[in-house]
């Protein structure tokens, strides 16, 4: 039985050592390269006797992936941090982790010193040629178990403090194996990766690439602004499988790229994180009539994706594509307000059971206990389920459909965002009295409304320093006074009406 | 030109769009901004912006956007 994700890599290097594994515009690493570098890094780190999260503070590159695997070879677990993240967020993450070791490039040292990080800094280039100690690596592997952590990824938290989700080898193996079955990955799969390496979405390419000795191209982020160039890139590299967020797909279709060029090698399109507008979906379907289109749904807390729906009928413009049914070895329960299973099309909270559940939030037992809870239907022995906070129901075909959120969490450009975290940041800005954040569902815009002396330019500048780019509001409005309801709360409904109408 | 500056300032009030000519090179605009801009420009000027117009060169400055719009209006 497989107990460690590195077994995927060892299989690939045994069969296809020289085949390119991960490629971007600067670097192409074969499975042999990945294997060698990871084991060098692993040996190097093993001398330091860590048993904890190790931060990988590098950009999007094949090299970064070898640093992840290097950390795993050393028996530790990785935390991807990207220079794209603003200073303040990295600082909060470091506060949560209190890490003792960071792998980075030379240019990140200054940032690390700026927030008085005083642990070890290892420069990637300096450690990738360390002499490999086979015996040591074997010994580490022997002692590991499949519930050991593999990584921590951070997701938006409503209190302003990001939550670090800790996944295990076992949860990732369960997810990767079942996802691969559904999407029928193989040795011939050529992935075009869109998502950043610091989110769990990139697991869809990272580990299946190893499992099948496939190839992943890390697509440069800039191309997602220029649809024709993006399609040309897909064709140039004969990319046949894309697992992208919906906004990346609709960027291509809505801006008319298909009039000029079709990504003709693509046979599998998996999408998720957001609702795919049917008008845009139809454009994709027309462009690629023979491709498979699969909707995926799942929270970071259940490792990656938990449900899937292969589109096999046509949808009206006002319909939503279902999220379908659970992956193999995953169970979904819809629980109503009384913690009972729903009946007859009733709505309920989507709750997940299965090996793919992650271990919880790092250094945060309280928030872990709020959402990783005892199965209320089982009073007999300890059994954890994850409460997603998403509301769903079954449609007439018995397919699961996403309905709404229980709280102020939104999905924007594929990212999961707590509006509360944006408000928290905006209220910290100098010369701001009160800030409220809304989401315009129709135009997919985050709108910030505030009172105070600060100009909108100052507010925008401030928020850019505090929040990741995808969380910075798309519209910032300054008003003279906040409308309040009779019981003294900000009248969000009124603001929403006013600022989201056309 | 004023309409274009207004649209841009609405997206990023902190940027001096009259001066900046590295909107793409310096990652000031992102893919969300490009999609919004294309929608807004198409509506404001009643033009259709084909995919081949979407290049870094055409979006690097307010002036470049203006010139593209001028061309498409004709």
Topology:
The complex is a heterodimer of chains A (502) and B (74).
Chain A: H1 6-16, E1 20-23, E2 28-30, H2 31-46, E3 53-57, H3 62-73, E4 77-81, H4 87-97, E5 101-104, H5 109-114, E6 120-123, H6 124-127, H7 134-143, E7 149-155, E8 163-168, H8 169-183, E9 190-193, H9 203-212, E10 215-218, H10 227-236, E11 241-245, H11 246-254, E12 268-272, H12 278-287, E13 292-297, E14 307-310, E15 325-326, E16 330-335, E17 348-354, E18 360-361, H13 365-371, E19 372-374, E20 384-394, E21 400-405, E22 409-412, E23 415-418, H14 419-427, E24 432-440, E25 445-452, H15 456-466, E26 475-478, H16 492-500
Parallel strand pairs in A: 1-10, 3-4, 3-5, 5-6, 9-10, 11-12, 12-13, 25-26
Antiparallel strand pairs in A: 1-2, 7-8, 8-18, 13-14, 14-15, 16-17, 17-20, 19-20, 20-21, 22-23, 24-25
Helix pairs in contact in A: 1-2, 1-9, 2-3, 2-7, 8-9, 11-12
Chain B: H1 2-11, H2 31-45, H3 56-59, H4 62-73
- The rounded distance between the terminal residues' Cα atoms of chain A is 57 Å
Annotated CATH topology of chain B? Non-ribosomal Peptide Synthetase Peptidyl Carrier Protein, Chain A
Give the ordered list of helices and strands of chain B.
HHHH
**Separate helix tally of chain A:** 16
**What is the count of DSSP helices of chain B, taking H or I runs of 4+ residues?**
4
CATH topology of the domain at 1-144 in chain A: Rossmann fold
CATH architecture of chain B: Orthogonal Bundle
Second rung of CATH, namely the architecture of the domain at 1-144 in chain A: 3-Layer(aba) Sandwich
Instruction: Strand order, main sheet of chain A: write it out.
Output: 11-12-13-14-15
Broad shape of chain A: globular
Q: Spans of chain A of 5+ residues with little confidence (pLDDT < 50)?
A: none
